[in-house]
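Anyone able to model this chain together with zinc ion?
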Amino acid sequence: MPELPEVETVRRQLSRRIPGRMILRVEVHDPLCVAPADPEELRVLEGREVRRVARRGKHLLIHLDDGAALVVHLRMTGRLLWHAPGRADDADRFLRAVVALDDGSRLAFADQRRFGRLRVLPAGGDPEAFWRGRVGAEPLGAGFDNAALARALRGRSTPVKAALLNQALVAGVGNIYADEALFRARIHPLTDAGALGPRRVAALREAIVDVLEQGVATGGASIRDYADAEGARGGMQDVLRVHLREGEPCVRCGAVIRKLRVAQRGTYVCPACQRRGR
Ligand SMILES: [Zn+2]
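re: yes, here you go
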């Protein structure tokens, strides 16, 4: 499932391709991908020029010249592919929508499991109202200091891993990067989020930033479906230290990595480096 580094990789690629281009046509092949909107509502994008491509948590935002934005949420298996002029995209049997641009290039939204969504944030709306309660602190943003993470975790009796997966607390961290960050910070995923003292909060913040930056630097993790905007795989899956390594020796201490279930998600932990109740 694409997390912050994967979405950021797509954002960087599209930022080199689509600003300055005009949207000629929006073709919705599967109405579910724009639900609850009607596919016709996306036609307001036609004739608008792309200004810039941004990201908020795991959401991509394509900002347009009239102040509106197209928000793309890839969710489980969504891909947003950039197709050069002349390339046919109809071969993809999971194609759900196409945004045709004035230079003949196209943005193809493909999604096998159909959880991904396209949505229009209208011009003149309040974008912060849209994000409030939905997306919390940006971990690669300037405001993500120890105090911000401490605030997000304070008073929470949920496992720290569940708190990290809560997009309203920390935006963009999902199952892969939560496991990797907790491993690096030597924190057991079932530790109460609210029980972490300042020293461990600081270690966790540093670990979150480190793993996300490494994810971006390697082009994201392609474990199952993820591909970037050009259809290529990332490299992060090859350098994971704990996630998916059940039964293998810990790279730090040699103990056997175990798999648990936390917040309904497969969770990987070194029982020696990440002790409970510390
Ligand atoms: Zn270990």
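The helical segments are 4-17, 127-131, 146-153, 160-165, 175-184, 198-217.
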